[in-house]
Amino acid sequence: GIAKSSLAKMAPAILLQILPGSQFCSKVMMALAYLDLDYQVQAVHPAKLKKQTPPPHQVPVMRYDGETVCDSREILAFLNTQHSSGERDLYPTVSKGAVEAGFESVSDMENWAHDGLAMLYYYFGGVTPHGKANVTAPFIELILPKVMRMVCGCLPAVGANVAAKQILARITPILGEKVVASEGAARTALATAVKRLEECFESDEQLYLFDTSQPTAADFAVFAPLKRLVDPLPDISPDLMGGFPGLFKLAQPVPRVQAFYRRMDDQFYRGKVDFRDAISQLT
Predict the structure, then answer these.
(1) pLDDT at position 8
(2) pTM
(3) Is 263 within 8 Å of 273 (Cβ atoms)?
C-alpha cells in the first residue's frame, strides 16, 4: 500500500483514506504512483465512513501536509497543481484523440467516466444477480469479523441485497431510470460507452485517449472502472470477480480499447495498486 518515491526526503506527508477495491481509490493510487509520490494508506470500514471521513463521507480522502482533499477528481487536480512537470501533466490542453469523439477536455472526459462508466460498474458489481453473488457478497464476507461469519453464514448474501438497494438509490439519479430499469438496458448503455471509447483512438499507434505521450487524468478515470468491470480481484481475494467479465466481447470489436486496457494495466496498475494491506487493516 506504499508507492515508492525517488524524492522521499522532499516528499510531502500523504495519507490516503480508502475502501479496498474502490475504483475511485484505484484511480488516485495509480496517479500517485505515476507522479512518484510516497503515500500511506488508511483503510476505512464501510460502516465507519461517517465517523472517519469528512462530508460527504466517501472515499478516497487525501490528507496532504495538513490539507484535506475529497473526491478523486479534486485530488487529481490538486496533485497536478503541486507536481505536474513537462509532459507529466494530468490536465494538459488537448486537441486530438478523444476530442474527435466529442470530449472537449480532459476534465470533460473524467466527469463522463465518473458519471457513466463508474456508475455502470456499481450497477453490474452490486445490483445484478452476478454482482451480488460474485462481487458484493464475497467482499462483505471478507471484511466481516470471523466470529460473525461463523455464527451466520447468510450475512454476506443479506448484506449484498441491502447494498443493492443503496446502490440503486445512488446511481439512478445519475444514470437515469431507463438505464437501470433492466439489465438489458444497462448492457446497452455499457456497450455504447465502450464503443465511444474506441472512437477516441485514431490509429493503432495512439497510446492514450487524447493522443498524448503520457497518460492524463482521463486515462486513469476511464481505466479504473474498466478494471473493476473486466477483471477478477486477486489482489483482494481469489473469490472476487469483475462486475462484467465479458465486457469487451459485449462491445466488440473494440481492439484499440483492449490494447489501451492492457497498456494501462501493465504500466500503471499491476505492482502499483494492491489492496491486501488495506484489507488486513479491516479484519
Answers:
(1) 41
(2) 0.92
(3) no
To the nearest 10°, report the CA torsion of 222, 223, 228, 231: 140
DSSP string computed for 117-172:
IHHHHHHHHHTSHHHIIIIIHHHHHHHS-HHHHHH-TTHHHHHHHHHHHHHHHHHH
Cβ partners under 8 Å of residue 10, min gap 6: none
For residue 46, whether the previous peptide bond is cis, meaning omega lies within 30 degrees of 0, is no
Q: Convert the pLDDT of each residue in 128-138 to its tens digit.
A: 999 999 999 98
| 183-199 and 255-264 helices, crossing angle to 10° | 80
Q: Is 77 helix (H, G, I), strand (E, B) or coil?
A: helix
Helix axes 23-34, 217-230, angle to 10 degrees: 130
Q: What is the pLDDT of residues 199-220, one digit of tens each?
A: 999 999 999 999 999 999 999 9
The fraction of the chain above a pLDDT of 90, given in percent, is 76
Q: What nine digits make up the cell of 272?
A: 502499483
